[in-house]
Amino acid sequence: MNKLRVIIADDERPAREFLKSILREFELVELVGEAENGADAIELIKAVKPDLAILDLKMPEVSGLDAVKMLRKTQMPLVAFVTAHDEFAVQAFELNAVDYLLKPVERSRLAETIARASERLEHEDWRAIESEKIKTAAAEYDHSTRTELIERIPVKVREEIYLIPVEDIASIIADGELLHITTAKNQKYTINYRLKDLEPRLDPHKFVRLSRGAIANLSYVKSISPMPGGTYSVTLTNSQEIASSRLQSKILRAKLLKL
Question: Could you read off the pLDDT of 39-49 as tens digits, one per residue?
Protein backbone atom coordinates (compact mmCIF):
# COMPACT_ATOMS: atom_id res chain seq x y z
CA MET A 1 0.00 0.00 0.00
CA ASN A 2 1.37 3.42 -0.99
CA LYS A 3 2.23 5.85 1.76
CA LEU A 4 0.25 9.06 2.17
CA ARG A 5 2.60 11.90 1.18
CA VAL A 6 2.11 14.83 3.57
CA ILE A 7 3.43 18.38 3.93
CA ILE A 8 2.88 20.70 6.90
CA ALA A 9 2.94 24.50 7.18
CA ASP A 10 2.97 26.56 10.37
CA ASP A 11 4.81 29.78 11.20
CA GLU A 12 5.66 28.47 14.69
CA ARG A 13 8.54 25.99 14.79
CA PRO A 14 7.35 24.22 18.01
CA ALA A 15 3.98 23.57 16.36
CA ARG A 16 5.69 22.07 13.30
CA GLU A 17 7.96 19.90 15.45
CA PHE A 18 4.97 18.68 17.45
CA LEU A 19 3.06 17.77 14.29
CA LYS A 20 6.09 15.99 12.83
CA SER A 21 6.55 13.94 15.98
CA ILE A 22 2.97 12.70 15.76
CA LEU A 23 3.10 12.04 12.02
CA ARG A 24 6.20 9.87 12.48
CA GLU A 25 4.05 7.47 14.51
CA PHE A 26 1.97 6.58 11.42
CA GLU A 27 3.64 3.91 9.28
CA LEU A 28 1.62 4.76 6.19
CA VAL A 29 2.55 8.47 6.27
CA GLU A 30 5.58 10.01 4.58
CA LEU A 31 6.39 13.62 5.48
CA VAL A 32 7.73 15.14 2.26
CA GLY A 33 8.19 18.77 3.30
CA GLU A 34 7.46 21.61 5.69
CA ALA A 35 6.97 25.35 5.31
CA GLU A 36 7.01 28.23 7.79
CA ASN A 37 4.57 30.48 5.93
CA GLY A 38 1.76 30.39 3.41
CA ALA A 39 3.82 31.63 0.47
CA ASP A 40 6.41 28.88 0.95
CA ALA A 41 3.58 26.36 1.35
CA ILE A 42 2.30 27.29 -2.13
CA GLU A 43 5.73 26.69 -3.67
CA LEU A 44 6.20 23.47 -1.71
CA ILE A 45 2.84 22.08 -2.84
CA LYS A 46 3.69 22.88 -6.46
CA ALA A 47 7.13 21.28 -6.13
CA VAL A 48 6.43 18.03 -4.26
CA LYS A 49 2.75 17.46 -5.13
CA PRO A 50 1.69 16.00 -1.76
CA ASP A 51 -1.46 13.97 -1.20
CA LEU A 52 -2.30 15.93 1.94
CA ALA A 53 -1.36 19.43 3.10
CA ILE A 54 -1.82 20.22 6.80
CA LEU A 55 -1.88 24.02 6.98
CA ASP A 56 -2.12 26.41 9.90
CA LEU A 57 -5.16 28.58 9.20
CA LYS A 58 -3.73 31.86 10.50
CA MET A 59 -0.15 32.40 9.42
CA PRO A 60 1.11 36.00 9.12
CA GLU A 61 0.68 37.75 5.76
CA VAL A 62 -0.43 34.62 3.88
CA SER A 63 -2.82 32.35 5.77
CA GLY A 64 -3.40 28.68 5.05
CA LEU A 65 -6.70 29.62 3.44
CA ASP A 66 -5.01 32.29 1.28
CA ALA A 67 -2.44 29.74 0.18
CA VAL A 68 -4.91 27.19 -1.18
CA LYS A 69 -6.97 29.93 -2.84
CA MET A 70 -3.89 30.72 -4.95
CA LEU A 71 -3.52 27.15 -6.22
CA ARG A 72 -4.98 25.97 -9.49
CA LYS A 73 -7.48 23.13 -9.30
CA THR A 74 -4.93 20.78 -10.87
CA GLN A 75 -2.44 21.63 -8.09
CA MET A 76 -4.85 21.18 -5.18
CA PRO A 77 -3.95 18.45 -2.66
CA LEU A 78 -6.26 17.21 0.02
CA VAL A 79 -6.19 19.83 2.78
CA ALA A 80 -6.65 19.85 6.55
CA PHE A 81 -6.52 23.21 8.33
CA VAL A 82 -5.11 23.57 11.83
CA THR A 83 -6.96 26.21 13.80
CA ALA A 84 -7.57 27.49 17.29
CA HIS A 85 -11.19 27.66 18.45
CA ASP A 86 -12.34 29.93 15.63
CA GLU A 87 -16.13 29.52 15.53
CA PHE A 88 -16.43 31.03 12.03
CA ALA A 89 -13.76 28.72 10.61
CA VAL A 90 -15.18 25.63 12.28
CA GLN A 91 -18.69 26.42 11.04
CA ALA A 92 -17.52 27.05 7.45
CA PHE A 93 -15.42 23.87 7.41
CA GLU A 94 -18.10 21.67 8.93
CA LEU A 95 -20.79 22.92 6.54
CA ASN A 96 -18.59 22.12 3.56
CA ALA A 97 -16.94 18.91 4.81
CA VAL A 98 -13.48 20.49 4.85
CA ASP A 99 -11.20 18.75 7.31
CA TYR A 100 -9.75 20.68 10.24
CA LEU A 101 -7.74 20.01 13.38
CA LEU A 102 -8.14 22.01 16.57
CA LYS A 103 -5.06 23.11 18.50
CA PRO A 104 -3.47 21.43 20.33
CA VAL A 105 -3.66 18.64 17.75
CA GLU A 106 -4.55 15.25 19.22
CA ARG A 107 -3.12 12.03 17.79
CA SER A 108 -6.53 10.35 17.61
CA ARG A 109 -8.02 13.27 15.67
CA LEU A 110 -5.03 13.33 13.31
CA ALA A 111 -5.52 9.60 12.72
CA GLU A 112 -9.08 10.35 11.56
CA THR A 113 -7.79 13.01 9.15
CA ILE A 114 -5.23 10.59 7.70
CA ALA A 115 -7.84 7.85 7.30
CA ARG A 116 -10.26 10.23 5.57
CA ALA A 117 -7.53 11.48 3.25
CA SER A 118 -6.61 7.94 2.21
CA GLU A 119 -10.26 7.19 1.54
CA ARG A 120 -10.83 10.37 -0.51
CA LEU A 121 -7.82 9.65 -2.73
CA GLU A 122 -9.69 6.61 -4.04
CA HIS A 123 -12.28 8.87 -5.73
CA GLU A 124 -11.35 9.57 -9.32
CA ASP A 125 -12.41 13.24 -9.22
CA TRP A 126 -11.19 13.98 -5.67
CA ARG A 127 -9.15 17.01 -6.72
CA ALA A 128 -12.12 18.84 -8.24
CA ILE A 129 -14.31 17.93 -5.27
CA GLU A 130 -11.73 19.17 -2.75
CA SER A 131 -11.16 22.39 -4.67
CA GLU A 132 -14.86 23.22 -4.78
CA LYS A 133 -15.39 22.46 -1.09
CA ILE A 134 -12.50 24.70 -0.04
CA LYS A 135 -13.61 27.48 -2.39
CA THR A 136 -17.10 27.48 -0.86
CA ALA A 137 -15.80 27.25 2.71
CA ALA A 138 -13.37 30.13 2.09
CA ALA A 139 -16.16 32.32 0.72
CA GLU A 140 -18.36 31.59 3.75
CA TYR A 141 -15.49 32.23 6.17
CA ASP A 142 -14.57 35.50 4.47
CA HIS A 143 -18.19 36.61 4.55
CA SER A 144 -18.53 35.78 8.26
CA THR A 145 -15.37 37.64 9.25
CA ARG A 146 -15.63 40.57 6.86
CA THR A 147 -15.08 43.97 8.41
CA GLU A 148 -16.89 46.98 6.97
CA LEU A 149 -14.62 48.79 4.54
CA ILE A 150 -13.84 52.45 5.14
CA GLU A 151 -14.02 55.21 2.53
CA ARG A 152 -12.12 57.94 4.42
CA ILE A 153 -9.39 58.06 7.04
CA PRO A 154 -9.50 60.93 9.56
CA VAL A 155 -6.13 62.57 10.15
CA LYS A 156 -5.28 65.43 12.49
CA VAL A 157 -3.12 68.26 11.16
CA ARG A 158 -2.37 70.71 13.96
CA GLU A 159 -5.84 71.53 15.30
CA GLU A 160 -7.83 70.48 12.25
CA ILE A 161 -9.10 67.05 11.22
CA TYR A 162 -9.01 66.12 7.53
CA LEU A 163 -10.90 63.21 5.98
CA ILE A 164 -8.59 61.59 3.44
CA PRO A 165 -10.44 59.56 0.76
CA VAL A 166 -9.04 56.03 0.75
CA GLU A 167 -9.06 56.03 -3.05
CA ASP A 168 -6.50 58.89 -3.00
CA ILE A 169 -4.03 56.97 -0.81
CA ALA A 170 -1.00 55.56 -2.65
CA SER A 171 0.78 53.91 0.27
CA ILE A 172 0.68 53.29 4.00
CA ILE A 173 3.96 52.63 5.82
CA ALA A 174 4.13 51.44 9.43
CA ASP A 175 6.62 52.89 11.91
CA GLY A 176 5.99 51.32 15.28
CA GLU A 177 2.55 52.47 16.43
CA LEU A 178 2.45 55.16 13.74
CA LEU A 179 1.25 54.91 10.14
CA HIS A 180 2.65 57.23 7.48
CA ILE A 181 0.11 57.84 4.71
CA THR A 182 1.18 59.15 1.30
CA THR A 183 -1.38 60.15 -1.31
CA ALA A 184 -1.10 59.93 -5.08
CA LYS A 185 -0.26 63.67 -5.06
CA ASN A 186 2.51 63.07 -2.49
CA GLN A 187 0.63 64.63 0.41
CA LYS A 188 1.86 63.06 3.64
CA TYR A 189 -0.02 62.40 6.87
CA THR A 190 0.68 60.45 10.06
CA ILE A 191 -1.86 58.70 12.26
CA ASN A 192 -1.58 56.66 15.45
CA TYR A 193 -2.91 53.27 14.38
CA ARG A 194 -1.75 49.72 13.73
CA LEU A 195 -1.39 48.40 10.18
CA LYS A 196 -2.84 45.01 11.06
CA ASP A 197 -6.02 46.73 12.31
CA LEU A 198 -6.35 49.03 9.30
CA GLU A 199 -5.62 46.49 6.56
CA PRO A 200 -8.88 44.48 6.98
CA ARG A 201 -10.83 47.72 6.46
CA LEU A 202 -9.19 48.42 3.08
CA ASP A 203 -10.50 46.93 -0.16
CA PRO A 204 -8.34 43.81 -0.77
CA HIS A 205 -8.89 44.16 -4.51
CA LYS A 206 -7.22 47.59 -4.48
CA PHE A 207 -4.62 47.42 -1.71
CA VAL A 208 -1.75 44.92 -1.61
CA ARG A 209 0.72 44.26 1.19
CA LEU A 210 4.32 44.66 0.05
CA SER A 211 6.00 43.79 3.34
CA ARG A 212 5.21 43.39 7.01
CA GLY A 213 5.12 47.20 7.30
CA ALA A 214 3.95 48.47 3.90
CA ILE A 215 0.73 48.51 1.87
CA ALA A 216 0.28 50.05 -1.59
CA ASN A 217 -2.72 50.95 -3.71
CA LEU A 218 -2.64 48.94 -6.94
CA SER A 219 -4.22 51.86 -8.80
CA TYR A 220 -0.97 53.79 -8.35
CA VAL A 221 1.58 51.05 -9.05
CA LYS A 222 3.62 52.25 -12.02
CA SER A 223 6.21 49.48 -12.31
CA ILE A 224 7.57 46.42 -10.52
CA SER A 225 11.31 45.74 -10.89
CA PRO A 226 13.01 42.46 -9.92
CA MET A 227 15.74 42.78 -7.30
CA PRO A 228 18.44 40.35 -6.05
CA GLY A 229 17.17 37.63 -3.74
CA GLY A 230 13.82 37.21 -5.43
CA THR A 231 12.35 40.50 -4.18
CA TYR A 232 10.90 43.48 -6.06
CA SER A 233 11.13 47.25 -6.02
CA VAL A 234 7.67 48.73 -6.53
CA THR A 235 7.50 52.23 -8.01
CA LEU A 236 4.30 54.24 -7.59
CA THR A 237 2.97 56.98 -9.85
CA ASN A 238 4.01 59.57 -7.22
CA SER A 239 7.64 58.35 -7.67
CA GLN A 240 7.63 56.63 -4.29
CA GLU A 241 9.68 53.39 -4.26
CA ILE A 242 8.86 50.57 -1.86
CA ALA A 243 10.76 47.31 -1.47
CA SER A 244 8.67 44.17 -1.23
CA SER A 245 9.69 41.44 1.20
CA ARG A 246 10.72 38.01 -0.05
CA LEU A 247 7.47 36.58 1.26
CA GLN A 248 5.24 39.20 -0.33
CA SER A 249 7.21 39.04 -3.58
CA LYS A 250 6.00 35.47 -3.93
CA ILE A 251 2.43 36.70 -3.51
CA LEU A 252 2.96 39.44 -6.09
CA ARG A 253 4.18 36.82 -8.54
CA ALA A 254 1.23 34.54 -7.82
CA LYS A 255 -1.50 37.19 -7.83
CA LEU A 256 -0.35 40.01 -10.11
CA LEU A 257 2.52 39.06 -12.37
CA LYS A 258 0.95 36.14 -14.19
CA LEU A 259 -1.62 36.32 -16.99
Answer: 899 999 999 99
> Burial, 234: exposed, middle or buried (Cβ in 10 Å; 0-12, 13-18, 19+)?
buried
Q: Residue 37 is part of which domain span?
A: 4-145
Query: What SS3 state is found at 11?
Result: coil
Percentage of the chain beyond pLDDT 90 is: 69
User: What integer pLDDT is reported at residue 147 of this predicted model?
Assistant: 76
Domains held by the chain: number:
2
Q: What is the DSSP string of 60-99?
A: SSS-HHHHHHTS-GGG--EEEEEESS-HHHHHHHHHTT-E
CA distances from 145 to 45, 64, 88, 142, 190 (A): 27, 16, 7, 5, 28
pLDDT at residue 64, rounded to an integer: 92
